[in-house]
């Protein structure tokens, strides 16, 4: 991140960029392309080699395996070893990206995040108009795993900071710690740090054919016990080397350490990548003692539940007029074809791949009050639904590939008007996807909140249609 990087704005890539490499555990050669995405899209993976090209969101609730890296899965579609790429995206400030790959595993490259950081830097990072909503941790959140002797805590802080401590009872490693005081230091201090493995773990993986894509340059190998010459010969053969030796420091002679505490720094890198699966950018000081993928993911789930529980009171969206909106009126007009007097959304304050929150300020000067109960002004219910429809249209269009689109509503069900909307009211318009968008068909549940109470709600179905020539 350079000095002009604005952490309070969302960012994507300036252009698509590709890389190829072998998966560490599967041994499968994978082609991977990172593509720009709309604000609120988040980080999503797409297996373009599978039928229907399924999409898998970077979400801790979708983690199915943490035994040798972090694996996400939806149905039969899997993407494994995602942590190093996720760390690179967080460390460079990329919020919205579609990651297309034609295999089941992210390429291991050199075992660090550096190759992915170089890829992102090569194409460039684009600041988007949308504001980035940070979530503050207002109380200590603890996670313990007595069996693995892991302790993790998230504490209130003004920035995102991480400290990791490792102690594997190894005379080679000893006790190490690493610290990241600001994500601006990630690229230089953390991204180059490679994964590490103990020799006895490496032997087990080789015996069970669990590192089919392994290469001696993928990892730091720690040797904390005597090794017979015949074992060294077997390792040299496995990694296509003439000879392998153990350095005096207790490491295989495959590479030089990039930092004296590179193993601890890599554990910090893994924490950054795994906590990206929270799905919300956080401001907190994280302290992790002996972290691993399983505990990182369990901790991510705990933080995610805390945010979801405290993000809204009784699920009513919070509107703070002093906070910059995700989309201003000018951006809304670029997305929707509606104009005065029929544009009924003033701003967008929240936007993700599954929900959107808009604002409509109702004033006495609205055109419809001239003829709708002039002496007792009440906003027509049909226009409240239209305001929800326009808000939902932005959500649907935002999920589409590049181009210009219109939304046409097909059905309205379960419509209820529970409270009148009058001049001076602020309508908070919330639309949530009830099902994934398929073939341009969007099923949504809409709610209008006024004064902290539900005024109107309905289930709506719309179709997104690409404009001719776009």
UniProtKB/TrEMBL annotation:
Q: Which GO terms describe its biological process?
A: fatty acid biosynthetic process; lipid A biosynthetic process
Annotated EC: 4.2.1.59, 3.5.1.108
* Pathway connected to this protein: Glycolipid biosynthesis; lipid IV(A) biosynthesis; lipid IV(A) from (3R)-3-hydroxytetradecanoyl-[acyl-carrier-protein] and UDP-N-acetyl-alpha-D-glucosamine: step 2/6
This protein's cofactor list reads: Zn(2+)
Major location, coarse class? Answer: cytoplasm
Coiled-coil residue spans: none
Q: Which residues form the active site?
A: 293, 372
What name has this protein been given in UniProt?
Answer: Multifunctional fusion protein
Organism source for this protein? Filimonas effusa
